Amino acid sequence: MNELTDTQLIVLAPSQEAAFEALVRRHAPRVHMLASNLVGPGSADDVVQEVFLSVHRNLKTFRGDSQFSTWLHRVALNACYSLLRKRQPEALESVPEPQSPADPVGNSENTQLRERLAWAMNQLPSDQREAVALRELSGLDYAAIAEITGSEVGTVKSRIARGRAALRALLTAQGITAGG
After folding, report:
1. What is the pLDDT of residue 85?
2. Domain CATH for 94
3. 178 in a structural domain
4. What are 96-145's pLDDT values in tens digits?
5. Nearest Cα to 84, choosing from 136, 132, 129?
């Protein structure tokens, strides 16, 4: 199944569980990364589960007007925002849960860096946070981000540029620089 395209898997998924599982294996890591950075690592697994339950329920409504990954990222963003709305007002002040350390010193530094990055991402306006997350964390191109967000490509580029600049300023103020 892994050699099939998303389109082929979508056709097979309603009748073959292995096809849906192949879609999950292919796309879950990106969805998890996006969710982890938007809602925190402690809640990312729940979001990923919710996303793929929703995809499974609604796969028949996917018309193919856009790429499956574009539709999937929109579903993932909606799930993240739904969770953040439920958490408010503590959502913007929450710190992601650290993962269990294998290397206590190195992992502690990485955890602190992730926490500061998550904090900085949460300081961005939602349109910038969404655009930066889709570009930097999901690796989507500008056209795909524009389609997901319903914006023009130029607007997406502007949001990403402003978001990156704001992140740089926020992280620099926290003592984090590109060199270390």
Report:
1. 82
2. 1.10.1740.10
3. no
4. 444 444 444 445 566 777 778 878 888 889 899 989 989 988 888 999 89
5. 129
Considering only CA atoms, which of 2, 130, 11 is closest in space to residue 62? Answer: 11
Q: Which residue has the tokens 């996006």?
A: 34
Write out the residue range of the structural domain in which residue 58 sits.
Answer: 6-173
C-alpha Rg value of the chain to the nearest Å = 17
Please give the angle made by the CA atoms of 34, 37 and 40, to the nearest 5 degrees.
Answer: 120
| Contact assessment for residue 75 and residue 55, using Cβ atoms and an 8 Å cutoff | yes
Closest to 167 (Cα-Cα) out of 113, 114, 117: 117
- Residue 179 in any domain: the answer is no
Domain count, the chain: 1
Q: Model confidence at 92, in pLDDT bands (50, 70, 90)?
A: very low
Q: What is the pTM assigned to this prediction?
A: 0.71
In 3D space, the residue among 131, 127, 149, 140 whose CA is nearest the CA of residue 27 turns out to be 140
